[in-house]
Design a protein that fits this description.
Elements (H helix, E strand, L loop, with lengths): L2 H12 L5 H8 L3 H13 L19 E9 L4 H12 L4 E6 L6 E7 L2 H11 L6 E8 L10
Antiparallel strand pairs: 1-3, 1-4, 2-3
Helix pairs in contact: 1-2, 2-3
């Protein structure tokens, strides 16, 4: 990967729907050379896919929390059971196994505080492996580069 590939990736991160001609112009390549590079980045898995960036507020999602979850016992079967439970919870947008004082960090998106309370009680509270839950409520986001 060289500087041109990095410029292609940065441009696509900002606008995944840019035409190949405009992308080529933005990175200083011919359209055919640009297309070959993009196809190679796709083929090698550097570009894993394309997706729409959604306006959460327009969808009625007004509440985001990061949730630190500790498990009662540190066993692989407990981790697998917790991960299965989170995979089926539509409120959980990200589930990360982390190091430190807790085992998991979740990004949870719901409509409002009442919906978060229901998730906290009925979803997280119903998972027997969970021993601690610490919620960090997002008040404002000044930077978000997730696509």
């Amino acid at each position: 990967m060289d500087d041109i590939d990095r410029r292609i990736l940065q441009t696509l991160r900002c606008d995944g729907r840019i035409t190949n001609a405009d992308l080529a112009a933005a990175v200083g390549l011919s359209p055919s050379a640009c297309l070959r590079r993009v196809q190679e980045l796709e083929r090698t898995g550097v570009i894993a896919g394309y997706r729409a960036v959604l306006d959460r507020a327009a969808m009625g999602i007004g509440f985001t929390a990061y949730v630190a979850v500790g498990l009662a016992e540190h066993h692989k079967k407990n981790q697998a059971a917790f991960e299965r439970a989170m995979a089926t919870a539509p409120q959980v947008k990200e589930c990360h196994n982390v190091t430190g004082a807790i085992e998991y960090l979740l990004r949870v998106e719901v409509e409002d505080l009442a919906a978060y309370k229901a998730f906290h009680t009925e979803v997280l509270g119903a998972v027997p492996q969970v021993s601690t839950i610490t919620s960090y409520i997002v008040m404002e986001t000044s930077k978000d580069e997730r696509a």
